[in-house]
Specification:
The chain has 140 residues and is α/β, with parallel strands linked by helices. 34% of the residues lie in helices and 18% in strands. The chain has five helices and five strands.
Amino acid sequence: MQKIAVMITTPPHSNLTTTALDFIRTALENGVDVIGIFFYQDGVLNASKHLSMPNDEFQTNAHWQQLHSDFNLPLYLCISAAQKRGLSDEILQESDSNIDNSLADSTDKNNSSNIVDIFTIAGLGELVTLSSVADKVVQF
């Protein structure tokens, strides 16, 4: 079975992102082993919890979530690229000096992250691993 890794560098509103979603779903439905998807550069914006697409446009986040759900597909998010674009898994809330942030519930991802929870935080090492295991790497 052919193994491919996919790197997404396009933002959620790009037609190339839609093409990538179609490519990945078609590959999976035809027996290709997609070993992982790595989101890099502007592609990390696909992981934003605060992405708001107009109702009459392609709902990118919903499609990533459905793809992840249907195929248990690993979605890796480059943390360096994400942080440069305002995404973090550790959002510290502004507080006055009377509030102790160490008492905040660290397990509540809704209050401590602006990244959709289907994405796994990763570094470029994960991309290297995917590339070394895959027969091909496809970038969108």
